[in-house]
Amino acid sequence: MPLDPTKHADWEIAEAAEKDMKTIYQIADELGLEKEELLPHGHYVGKVDFAKVLDRLKDKPDGKYVDVTAITPTPLGEGKSTSTMGLLEGMGKRGVNVSAAIRQPSGGPTMNIKGSAAGGGLAQCIPLTPFSLGLTGDINAIMNAHNLAMVAMTSRMQHERNYDDEQLQRLSGIRRLDIDPTNVEMGWIIDFCAQSLRNIIIGMGGRMDGYMMQSKFGIAVSSEVMAILAVAKDLKDMRERMGKIVVAYDKKGNPITTSDLEVAGAMTAWMAEALNPNLLQSIEGQPVFVHAGPFANIAIGQSSIIADRVSLKLSDYHLTESGFGADIGFEKFWNLKCRFSGLKPNAAVVVATIRALKCHGGAPIPVPGKPMPSEYGSENVGWVEKGCENLVHHIKTVKKAGINPVVCINAFYTDTDNEIAAVRRLAEAAGARVALSKHWEKGGEGALEFADAVIDACSEKNEFKLLYDLEMPLRKRIELIAKEVYGADGVEYSPDANSKAARIEKDSELSKLGTCMVKTHLSLSDNPNIKGVPKGWKLYVRDVLTYGGAGFVVPVAGTISLMPGTGSNPAFRRVDVDVESGKVKGLF
Prior knowledge:
Elements: H1 10-18, H2 24-31, E1 38-40, E2 46-48, H3 50-56, E3 64-70, H4 80-93, E4 98-102, H5 107-110, E5 119-120, E6 123-126, H6 128-132, H7 138-162, H8 165-172, E7 179-184, E8 188-190, E9 200-202, E10 213-215, E11 217-219, H9 224-231, H10 235-242, E12 246-250, E13 255-257, H11 264-271, E14 278-282, E15 287-290, H12 305-314, E16 317-325, H13 326-341, E17 347-352, H14 354-361, H15 381-400, E18 404-410, H16 417-429, E19 433-437, H17 439-442, H18 448-458, H19 474-486, E20 490-493, H20 495-506, E21 514-515, E22 538-547, E23 552-557, E24 576-577, E25 584-585
Parallel strand pairs: 3-16, 3-17, 4-15, 4-16, 8-11, 17-18, 18-19, 20-22, 21-23
Antiparallel strand pairs: 1-2, 2-14, 5-6, 6-14, 7-12, 9-10, 12-13, 14-15, 22-23, 24-25
Helix pairs in contact: 4-18, 7-11, 10-11, 13-15, 14-15, 15-16
């Protein structure tokens, strides 16, 4: 019998479930993989040789494709990964051939306030410890590939300073790139939330200690290399994209790429194995692909196109996860991931909790690490109804894509019948199917209504359409996203962002790249403190980055940073190892 989630921590539930979990060989066999297509990493985790699978099944029709997104996040959490696992388990209980793809958690949130992203209660991805602590090394490969580009650039700058053109040619056979140290696009990356590394000075010491300059760190999953892993179709596509990464600009303003630095091949070598998606399982034994990374607020934040393509060939239904709310993760799924993959979704889930809706409706905003305000323990239909304005906004966003929306009320034991009824009434009036799901407490048995609603939504045809075409000028696209998806009145730019946008619009190649917005996930606006559906505001774009390899331009809105900070009560304080058994405990 599984442990009771009202009495046990997630890691305890996962540990108990892992005693009876299937081997990776059983999961692969049930999924329909051939022996040579499975690349085991121990008994319970594996990678899948995607090229062999796609070649073998190239003529097989795809299954139904479902995206899972959510309302605007609050400190209470909406349970998107939990709901993805719950839906997977519920459809499994219905006898459906189903799989899911979720994103690999970053060490930053795992060791910080949020914790891991395996789901929760009886709706989790297991085994929890490898899932949460590096898995098969994809993020480590990303860090090595990304930082190698910075090594190539900084060492080149040192040698160009120390030698004249003739010496450079004689010693190394290289030409001078004349990199502008004040116009460097990339920084370094690390897979932790390390605010002290946001702004640094490197190259201190003598002439042989590098080039002294300002630099920076971002969190690993914000790397363009991670974005390339999410959108690449195959190894050839990855190699081509890797060579288009803009590292810096020369003193005339021309881009310096990884190809110019002759490092793209070595970067791809670090990443070749990472292209194969990881295979794990739910607590109830359904297959779960884990590939690419989180943080849709500062990155693309999608499970990979490769994982989706493989799963759609192997399963009748495939669930894929997009980060944060529909304004962030779903918008990028809609206008970037689907554009690059050519895949068309059959339905989309918008996850909501009663508690999070109360937060959007006027209840006191919880502070992470502090006790829950008592107001969340009692009925307040008025707050729920007001908070549903945020839910309805996201339903409308999904419908603008022509996709059938399903609202999942991710149930909690403090929810009341009247509060649940209010959500049903308002969401159905907005044109969505609604399902109450108790997967956290009961696993697949608690998600049958949820599973039925999604299957029903997939049975209907939809008219999927992108929000913009790539002929539209960049600033028009940003304005369209701001108005149609965020609800802004317009867009304002810093002088630097405006000049970068204008330069991109004049470039025949860069102007055709997609648009990957960077914005706080905690509000529809660019101000994380404003909940609900803000009115009378303009999106402030302070910078515009170029991710030529990934294939998009990155407008940066508000004050958001590509390097999150670690809080005062981080999760690592509670993580430890049982020295007798060697088992990790305290992950959540």
